[in-house]
Amino acid sequence: MRPSWLVAAAIFSFVASSAVAEEPYEAFGSSGEPLLEATETVDGTTLAYPTVGAARLFSIRLTVEPGGRTLLHHHPVPTYVYVLEGEFELHYGDTVKTFKAGEALVEPLNKPTQVFNRGTVPLKMLVVQIESTEIEGAAPEHP
Questions:
Q1: How many alpha carbons lie under 13 Å from residue 140 in its C-beta half-sphere?
Q2: In the chain, which ranges are E strands?
Q3: Contact between 64 and 117 (Cβ < 8 Å)
């Protein structure tokens, strides 16, 4: 079964494609493009949401300068990443995957993870986490 947001996006796109909106509440001159539909993280782990505390959504625009990196960390909650500009290497375990502008992913759950910008331009990413008031979205790894 498709998520309700995907059905809504399809309906929105169909309605938005009309040449002229007949009513002021109808879509006109806008379009939607799904970026990612996932039931698993980038490493194949099934998504799981926090079951304690009240739901909380957190987002950040993260910039990593050329030659820079994030600290080694892990995510105990689903973490969606959309690459706005640049590209990066995502390191987790023995795996390295590269992502570039326009791509989206869900980072691994509960695995040491680190982002490296090996490029020559700043990396800019939108990071969105589904947290709870009891569990924050990222925690430093202590080797």
A1: 4
A2: 55-64, 73-74, 79-85, 87-92, 95-100, 104-106, 113-116, 123-132, 139-140
A3: yes
Average pLDDT value for residue range 129-142: 77
Give the residue from 122, 85, 128, 73 showing the smallest Cα distance to 105.
Answer: 128
Pairing of strands 55-64, 104-106: unpaired
Four-point Cα dihedral 46, 83, 123, 64, nearest 10 = -40
Sign, Cα dihedral of 50, 53, 57, 62: negative
* Tokens (6 digits) for 61: 């625009």
The SS3 of residue 59 is: strand
User: Average pLDDT, stretch 122-140?
Assistant: 86
Tokens of 18: 């009309």
The distance from CA 125 to its chain's CA centroid, rounded to whole angstroms, is 8
Buried b or exposed e, range 24-63, using 16+ CB within 10 angstroms: eeebeeeeeeeeeeeeebbbeeeeeebeeeeebeeeeeee
